[in-house]
Design goal:
Elements lengths: L6 E2 L2 E2 L31 E2 L8 E8 L2 E11 L2 E4 L9 E6 L8 E5 L1 E4 L9 E4 L10 E2 L10 E6 L13 E8 L12 E4 L16 E6 L2 E11 L9 E5 L4 H9 L2
Parallel strand pairs: 11-16
Antiparallel strand pairs: 1-16, 2-5, 3-13, 4-5, 4-7, 5-6, 6-10, 7-8, 9-10, 12-13, 12-15, 13-14, 14-17, 15-16, 16-17
């Protein structure tokens, strides 16, 4: 079985040590020889109640159970990455707490998926019952896509193995299309430190990339993929919410 040239940022729930997973799994591995550093790199723990719309996903598939992030975008809908739901038969979500085990639990077997990585890596999950929490705001303004510094959130596994129990956050400078490995496209946003050291990684897929709009956070991106993690010249790639907002809103409003 050949591995993907990309490292998608979902991770296997049973992972005890940093490993590279092949194409059958959502957490496809890099074949560029890069060392695996599977977590939000260079971040800090998030305050316990700072992001009431954040969610951790446990995604059941025939190949195993995978971990991703998501955001609450309506009382009954979550937004995540399309590649997190490949082969999904059931999703269990934990919503609203930095320590994910304390979150409100909901389940789902109903999904609307976007086209996929590099061409619309988004998906909407319909929850079994509503959640009483304020949803995150989704970006429809192009000016926020040009924010100088974004914030990413996630529960990627730690450097020593095993999933992080506490939500991590990291601030990442925006990088313009055409710089480093950032393609000129409206499908994605790129963020990261050119010299490396800060990034999202496995287990962070589907989580939000945020921009500050006044006193509020607005979701501008969805964690999607990267070549390695936190390495010089290789950025994090995030689905651009504003490009797919109409399709996402239609999925949120759908039955």
């Amino acid at each position: 079985m050949l591995c993907s040239p990309l490292r998608l940022r979902a991770t296997l729930a049973a992972l005890l040590l940093p490993v590279l997973l092949c194409a059958a799994a959502p957490a496809a591995a890099s074949t560029d020889g890069a060392a695996s550093q599977p977590r939000i790199i260079g971040g800090v723990p998030s305050p316990s109640a700072a992001y009431p719309w954040i969610a951790k996903l446990s995604v059941a598939t025939p190949a195993g159970t995978y971990l991703c992030g998501a955001t609450l975008v309506s009382p009954t809908r979550l937004l995540t990455a399309q590649h997190c739901l490949e082969g999904a038969t059931k999703v269990t979500a934990y919503i609203g707490k930095a320590t994910w085990t304390a979150g409100v639990m909901r389940t789902s077997t109903s999904f609307v998926r976007g086209p996929g990585v590099k061409k619309g890596d988004w998906a909407v999950i319909k929850l079994s019952t509503a959640v009483k929490a304020t949803p995150v705001k989704l970006n429809g303004a192009a000016k926020l896509d040009d924010t100088a510094t974004f914030r990413a959130l996630g529960w990627g596994v730690t450097a020593t193995g095993g999933a992080s129990a506490v939500l991590q956050e990291v601030d990442l400078p925006r990088q313009k299309p055409g710089t480093f490995d950032c393609a000129t496209t409206t499908a994605e946003l790129c963020a990261g430190v050119p010299t490396g050291g800060k990034d999202t990684c496995q287990g962070d897929s589907g989580g939000p990339l945020l921009a500050k709009n006044g006193k509020s956070w607005v979701q501008v991106g969805i964690t999607s993929w990267g070549k390695g993690c936190a390495q010089a010249g290789n950025l994090g790639h995030y689905t651009r919410v504003s490009t797919y907002l109409k399709a996402i809103q239609a999925a949120i409003a759908g039955a």
